[in-house]
Design goal:
By secondary structure, the protein is of the alpha/beta class. It has two domains: 169 residues, UDP N-Acetylglucosamine Acyltransferase, domain 1 (3 Solenoid); 54 residues, Udp N-acetylglucosamine O-acyltransferase, Domain 2 (Up-down Bundle). 19% of the residues lie in helices and 26% in strands. It is built from four helices and 24 strands. β23 and β24 form a beta hairpin. α3 runs antiparallel to α4. The protein is elongated, with a radius of gyration of 19 Å.
Length: 237
C-alpha cells in the first residue's frame, strides 16, 4: 500500500495491499478498498496543470480491484466526488470532475468520462461507456455494453450502442419499494413524452397535468427540461 501526502482515511476503512492513494484524497468511514485500486491519481486531461485538485469519497463504499478514480481539474471545479454506499467493481474508471451519487453500482469495466454526473441509486452494467458531461438520472439502469452520448432520464432503463430508451426501470423501482401506482404513472409519462406526436415541451406539460401530484413524474420532467445535451430517447438517432 502506498499513501501519499494530504490523504485522510476515516475510521474502520480497510485498505488492502497494493492500493495506491496518490494525494489530496479524503476517504470516509467503513469503506473497503481492494488490491491494485488507483485512488486519487492525477488526470491525463491535457488541460490539467498540476493544480491541487481533490478526490472526495464518502462512507460505506466498496471499491474493487484495478479501479481508477482520478482527482478533479480547475476547469471542472477542482473535485471528483464519490458518494456513500456505492459499489465500484473491477476495472471501473471514474474520470476527473465526475460526481457519483449515493448507492450507485458501477459494474466491471464501466468507464465514466470527465464531468459526468450520476444521481442516486443508478446501476450501470458492465462494459458501459458514458461520454463527457452526461448526466444519469436517479434510479436509472444502463444495460451492459450501453454507449451513452446523451443524458439518461431518471427512473428509466436504456440499452444499446448509441443507447436508446427501453422502458421504466421497473424491477429496480420495485426492489426499492416504489408503489405500483407510481411506477404506472412513470410508464405513462414516458409514453406521453417520447411516443406521442406532441412537441417535446407540449408532451412534458401534458405529462405533468396527467400525473399532477406524482413527485417522481415532476422530477422526470424537470430533468428533461434542464438537460443541455438532450436525453436518450427511443430512437437510435
Amino acid at each position: 500500500m502506498v499513501v501519499g501526502p494530504r490523504v485522510r482515511i476515516g475510521a474502520r476503512t480497510i485498505v488492502s495491499s497494493h492500493v495506491v492513494i496518490e494525494c489530496n484524497t479524503t476517504i470516509g468511514k467503513d469503506n473497503r478498498i481492494f488490491p491494485f485500486a488507483m485512488i486519487g491519481a492525477a488526470t491525463p486531461d491535457l488541460k490539467f496543470r498540476g493544480e491541487p485538485s481533490t478526490l472526495e469519497i464518502g462512507d460505506h463504499n466498496t471499491i474493487r480491484e484495478f479501479t481508477s478514480l482520478h482527482r478533479g481539474t480547475e476547469a471542472g471545479g477542482m473535485v471528483t466526488r464519490i458518494g456513500s454506499g456505492t459499489l465500484i467493481m473491477p476495472y471501473v474508471h471514474v474520470a476527473h470532475d465526475c460526481t457519483v451519487g449515493d448507492h450507485t453500482i458501477l459494474v466491471n469495466s464501466t468507464q465514466l468520462a470527465g464531468h459526468c454526473i450520476t444521481e442516486e441509486y443508478v446501476t450501470i452494467e458492465g462494459l458501459c461507456g458514458v461520454q463527457q458531461f452526461c448526466r444519469i438520472g436517479a434510479h436509472a439502469f444502463l444495460a451492459a455494453g450501453s454507449r451513452v452520448e446523451r443524458d439518461v432520464p431518471p427512473y428509466s432503463r436504456v440499452a444499446g450502442d448509441r443507447a436508446r430508451l427501453i422502458d421504466v426501470n421497473v424491477i429496480g423501482l420495485q426492489r426499492r419499494g416504489f408503489a405500483p401506482e407510481t411506477i404506472a404513472a412513470l410508464r405513462a409519462a414516458l409514453r406521453t413524452i417520447f411516443y406521442s406526436k406532441l412537441s417535446r415541451e407540449e408532451s412534458l406539460t401534458a405529462a405533468l397535468e396527467e400525473h399532477a401530484g406524482v413527485a417522481e413524474v415532476g422530477r422526470l420532467v424537470e430533468f428533461i427540461r434542464r438537460s443541455e445535451r438532450g436525453v436518450v430517447s427511443r430512437e437510435r438517432d
